[in-house]
Amino acid sequence: MNLVTLLLITGIIFIVAYYTYGKFLEKKLDVDPNRKTPAIEMSDGVDYVAARTPILLGHHFATIAGGGPIVGPVSAAVFGWIPAVIWIVLGSIFVGGVHDYTSLQASIRHKAQSIGTIIKEYIGERGQTLFLSFSIATLILIVGVFVILVRDTFISVPQAATSSMLFIVVAILFGILVNQIRMNFILASVFGVVAMFVCVWLGNVFPLELSGFTWVVILLLYSYIASVLPVWVLLQPRDYLNSFLLYGMMIGATLGVLFANPVIKMAGYTGFHSETLGYLFPILFITIACGAVSGFHSLVSSGTTAKQLDNEKNGKFITYGGMLIEGFLAVIAIGSVAYLSQADFSARLAELGGPIPTFSAGIGFLMSHFGLSEVVGTTFVALVASAFLMTTLDSATRLGKYAVQEFAEGKSKFFTGQHVSTIIIVIGAGALAMSGTWNKVWPLFGSANQMLGALALLAVSVWLMRKGVKAWFTIIPMIFMFIVTLSALAVLIYENIFTGAEPNYFLAGSAFVLLVLCVFLIIEAWNSFMGKKNKDEPIKAS
Q1: Would the CA dihedral through 224, 229, 234, 239 be positive or negative?
Q2: How many CA atoms lie within 13 A of 470 on its CB side?
Q3: Within 10 Å of residue 87's Cβ, how many Cβ atoms?
Q4: What is the Cα–Cα distance from 309 to 414, expressed in whole angstroms?
Q5: pLDDT for position 539
Q6: How big is the CA angle at 23 (ends 20 and 25), to the nearest 5 degrees?
Q7: 278-287 tens-digit pLDDT
Q8: pLDDT recorded at residue 263
Q9: SS3 state at 57
Q10: Residue range 25-66, pLDDT digits in tens
Q11: For a FRET experiment, which of 49, 128, 198, 362 has its CA 20 to 30 Å from that of 412?
């Protein structure tokens, strides 16, 4: 098979799924375009700000995409391209897309409150406390891992550092033009996109070279500032404008595949065990993470997207459609290395020092077939990847702030302040970023992230069942994700204690804490649901 055929088949499958299974989900969720959303009813100019659909799609997609659909699929290719592509396609359609869309709808039916608040209403306060504890730990992991990835990218590609810093200025200017000066939206968009590509050019001319420690400090400071600013100042415009970079990269990669028409040389399946990752089950499913399903998406859907959605009918396009686009990006990531033999792929991964440089080199090579310099193409892709890693940083920090505030609500006014709650996330992520490399932390991040997805599916399943909906479309993926992630955490505990030259008690202990939190939350949910069922309590209105 060649890459053109692979992209064509997966693209058609995703389009068909959007118009069939997506429509089925829309009907099951009783979407009503005439029902006012929280962004309209509760507008406050800070967090609840109704956004145009293109802007909100840009924010949502840029936030959920990040580096996950690149790092995970490229890393998982050690098992061969077939298992990775199968999980990406099926996971995006039946697990990830369902997870993202139902999380959004559940949130907007509850005044754009978080999944934690929904758990409190339908499972109980202890359930909410356990979920928020898990969420805060996961978000610290996410911010920490992405700080490491951005730092390493900026060190290896200093051109990306310059461009990313300049992007921030352009985004703020765009936000002011659109929201304060009220410039024509299309005209402002043209200005923003042109300015971004000027930033790319300036990055190539003036690369910014700093030490790893300096970059960690700068990135944490950026995350803090971005988290406390109103969303229209930086979050919305940055994510919207960055989405053009990602769309451009995806179009360029697709054109590169069409022009190069490379044959897939990578092994379809290398075996059930990999020397670098371990066993295909459950490791494949936590490694690919965001390319198929990600618990972080539920925090985005219910944390920021729900507060900006202007109409319920646009939710399917933004969340379910956004997940399918991300799935296609994950397939492109597989394609960026699939034209290599397994031996060449392993050698390049080791030589370039990680999946993002490997992905950038692969896409740069493909784009060189329609006349673009391979060096320029590789640099551009690295710039795009770093831009999206940055969007995950600011959004994850803001979501962490929300989680800490919700956890402290009614307990401590001190910790509900936005500056204190943000600093907690930043300090935790900073300690993690200083402690190791991305490949040591990624398996724990993947496990926690996917477990968060299973817990979000648990919450929406209980909500739907209370409404009288037959929720098999959330229950089946929920059960599967619980099996995968509980297995993965158990494997991580074992491997970090009993294998390797030295035990890693920090990672083993972290995995154990996450495992315990998850088990207790499952028990709490089961007891709560069965207790209410036995009491025959009335179904809550929504």
Answers
A1: positive
A2: 1
A3: 24
A4: 30
A5: 40
A6: 110
A7: 889 999 998 8
A8: 94
A9: helix
A10: 999 999 999 999 999 999 887 778 888 888 888 878 877 877
A11: 49
Unique residue bearing structure tokens 């089925």: 24
The four Cα atoms 393, 398, 399, 402 give a dihedral, to 10 degrees, of: 160
Cα 428 to chain center, whole Å? 19
- Give the model confidence (pLDDT) of 402-437 as tens digits: 889 888 887 888 888 888 999 999 998 888 888 666
Could you give the C-alpha distances from 350 to 7, 356, 511, in angstroms and in order? 26, 12, 27
Residue type, 248: G
H helices, E strands: number in the chain: 24, 2
* pLDDT band, residue 12 (cuts 50/70/90): very high
Direct distance between the N- and C-terminal alpha carbons of the chain, in angstroms, rounded to an integer: 49
Is the distance from CB of 368 to CB of 360 less than 8 angstroms? Answer: no
Structure tokens at 155: 């060190």
Segment 175-193 shows an average pLDDT of 89
pTM: 0.86
Sequence letter at residue 379: T
Angle, helix 355-367 to helix 342-352, in steps of 10 degrees: 120
Among residues 107, 61, 18, which one has the least CA distance to residue 322?
61
* Integer Cα distance of 231 and 394 in angstroms: 10
User: Hey, which residues does 2 pair with through a beta bridge?
Assistant: 263
For 230-262, the pLDDT digits (tens) are 878 887 788 788 878 888 888 999 899 999 999
Q: List, in sequence order, the alpha helices (H) in 29-113.
A: 38-41, 53-65, 68-76, 81-91, 97-108
> For 230-373, where are the alpha helices, taking DSSP H only?
235-260, 280-288, 295-300, 315, 321-338, 342-352, 355-367
